[in-house]
């Protein structure tokens, strides 16, 4: 499963990506799912979805105001999308955010 995190500039999600990748690497059950996590800016969403095989897009809560346009782009590319919970994002709760991605992927 390929997970793409998006925020305004792609910078604030960088640390979260590292935490998620570390959590995946530490758990055999997740390693077998071949999970990949990366981040980009909201302005690069369309080109990134064109160029890569993304399964799930997770929106950083600080760009929640752009949800409608993000959903349109994701629907056009047939990619599932959800917004990360503000508390989970603030705590950099990698397990909770990975759980969200898996649940979204399976839905």
Q: Would you write up a description of this structure?
A:
By secondary structure, the protein is an alpha/beta fold. It is about 50% helix and about 20% strand. Strands 2-1-3-4 form a four-stranded parallel β-sheet, sandwiched between helices. The longest helix is centred in the first third of the chain and has 13 residues, at about 15-25. The radius of gyration is 13 Å and the shape is globular.
Give descriptors for this structure.
107 residues, alpha/beta, Rossmann fold, 4 strands, globular
Concise description?
The protein has helices at 14-26, 28-31, 45-51, 67-76, 86-90, 94-106, and strands at residues 2-7, 36-41, 56-59, 80-83. The model has no long low-confidence stretch (mean pLDDT 92). It is built from 6 helices and 4 strands.
């Amino acid at each position: 499963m390929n997970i793409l995190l998006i925020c305004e500039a792609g910078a604030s999600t960088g640390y979260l990506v590292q935490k998620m990748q570390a959590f995946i690497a530490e758990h055999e059950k997740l390693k077998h799912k071949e999970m990949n996590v990366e981040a980009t800016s909201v302005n690069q969403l369309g080109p990134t979805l064109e160029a890569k095989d993304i399964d799930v897009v997770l929106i950083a809560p600080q760009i929640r105001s752009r949800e409608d346009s993000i959903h349109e782009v994701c629907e056009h590319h047939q990619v599932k999308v959800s917004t990360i919970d503000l508390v989970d994002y603030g705590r950099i709760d990698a397990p909770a955010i990975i759980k969200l991605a898996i649940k979204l992927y399976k839905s």
